[in-house]
Amino acid sequence: MAKKQLKLSNSQIKRLNRLARIRSGERETSRIKKQLLATLRSVELLNQLDTTKVLPLNQVTGLKNVGRKDKVSPSLSVEEALSNASDQHNCFFKIRPIFKD
Amino acid sequence: VNRLNQLAITEACEGLKRKQFSAKELTTACLAQIEKFDGCIKAFITVTKEEALRAASRADKLIQAGVEILRTKPLLGIPVSVKDLFCTKGVLTTAGSNILKNYIPVYDATVVGNLKDAGAIILGKTNLDAFAHGSSTEASDFFTTRNPWNINFLPGGSSGGSAASVIADEAIFSVGTETAGSIRQPASWCGIVGAKPTYGRVSRYGVIAMASSLDSPGPMTKTVEDAALVLNILAGQDFFDATTSPQLVPDYLKQLKKGVAGIKIGVAREYFSAGVDKEVAAKVKKAVGVLGSLGAKIENISLFDPQYAIAVYTILQRAEVSSNLARYDGIRFGFPRKVFGEEAKRRIMLGTYTLSAGYYDKYYLKAQKVRTVICQDFRRAFRQVDVIIGPTSPSTALPVGASKDGPMFGEIQDVLVEPSTIAGLPGLNVPCGFSAQGLPIGMQIIGPQFSEGLLFKVGYTYEEATKWHKKKPSL
């Protein structure tokens, strides 16, 4: 049986744009689409390996359930936290409205 | 006599201790070198001249008060360049990206804090591929750094600015970060020592994240001894990074000079296969021969085909990039997402795809399973040998413009470092000669997790026997 050629539809690309909150122009989108396909095809070779009996790796040095004491400690001041904000109001980050009234 | 800025850390420390020169003179020498040559090399995004001179004066006062201080502050008065991926309090930190071109962190990365506590003087922040996405510095949103050996060639990357600043003697040493190759490959192309520690040996806190399960900060230095000295200061568990290891940090200088007698070195056929430049392969094999003549035992071994590691790396890295770059919303810091460059967009899109419903098992989960296989393969190899040596990069430095060819440029460049990085292993680049064109060649020494001390010992023994590190580019 011939191997199914990997494809990406324009609606899939649009969905990805939405999920990733990335906007790009038409030409850039078609370039990215082409490169995405090339990259996805290049990783297909992993399918040659049988991994049915292999567990996925979780943490490479084997750490498990790392916790720390829930202790209050000094942190950033409001001024510091806001020092890189694009906009602020009364000690809060100011953003554009996300609901329509 | 060396000019002050040409000194290695150990030499500079000795000079400061004997009061042959001051920290201010040492810092001024580095700043003068930057002023003279960085217009051409472009290693730095930001130079913090005033802060550096002030820190140097403070260091001099401490040394005047008594040289015993050098025992508790082993880097006191030593000028360092810092990859612009590490947050530096009050100092612009861009990650080489337009999104963060106005970002001034309100805290220091743990690595930066450790350097400051040890007395190091920060000269400035070095160029990199934007968000460390690349192997050339050509993907920097600002400019391309040039290789000091020949400015028509690339320095490698992503820590290319750091590597160039060290070999150009603009800094006594540098700190970089590696996800796969970003320390070792530019170290190789620029002819310096670069140590990528075991994952979790050095804290990632305050490092602008690329791929969180792989990122490893580490030293980039003129000598192996310097790298060991710096890792002593960087390594250790960090309250702010839960993935740092609780394993005790040994004194990496302790076993440094004990030689390689009886150490088993593995040479993997797969690391010398097609695609590796003949000149590079020959020099690395010759270097292994030198270690053999110094008492190491050389064994031929076989490793899992690195092509699979490229595929695993591509999937994992893109997936982790897409989630790490999700934080850039232009609200709390930085510019809005529309400012992302095409490389970042491409990686975010691919990562989003491989993590999205219906594709997770096929891509991400599959990659994590093959990652287990790669780890097992290395464990098997390290039952047979103590360390593995191979070329760091398949080629010497490539000409400016070379990275523009394809979306997989980095992966192909980094084919020889990706398997070890996927397994969280430490790797050390040591210069091992020059091509006919006069460009540096590097070998990498890879060991089991937490075997940094052993790697330094092998690297130091080779360096002492060959002295490639004494060669400098004529600027």
Tell how many strands the DSSP assignment of chain B holds: 11
| Range of helix content of chain A | 25-40%
Biggest pleated-sheet summary of chain B: 11 strands, mixed
Low-confidence stretches of chain A: none
Average pLDDT score of chain B: 96
Largest interface (CB within 8 Å) is between:
A-B, 46 and 58 residues
Silhouette of chain B: globular
Structural class of chain B: alpha/beta
Let me know the average pLDDT of chain A: 90
The helix/strand order of chain A is HHHEE
Structural class of chain A: mainly alpha
Helix content of chain B: 25-40%
Explained architecture:
The complex is a heterodimer of chains A (101) and B (475). Chain A is mainly alpha-helical. Helix content of chain A is 33%, strand content 4%. A two-stranded antiparallel ribbon of chain A has the order 1-2. In chain A, a hairpin with a 2-residue loop joins strand 1 and strand 2. The longest helix of chain A has 17 residues. Chain A is flat, with a radius of gyration of 23 Å. The model of chain A has no long low-confidence stretch (mean pLDDT 90). By secondary structure, chain B is an alpha/beta fold. In chain B, 38% of the residues lie in helices and 13% in strands. Chain B has 15 helices and 11 strands. Chain B has an 11-stranded mixed β-sheet with strand order 1-3-2-4-6-5-10-11-9-7-8, with helices on both faces. In chain B, helix 8 packs antiparallel against helix 15 and helix 10 crosses helix 11. Chain B is globular, with a radius of gyration of 21 Å. The interface between A and B is large, with 46 and 58 residues.
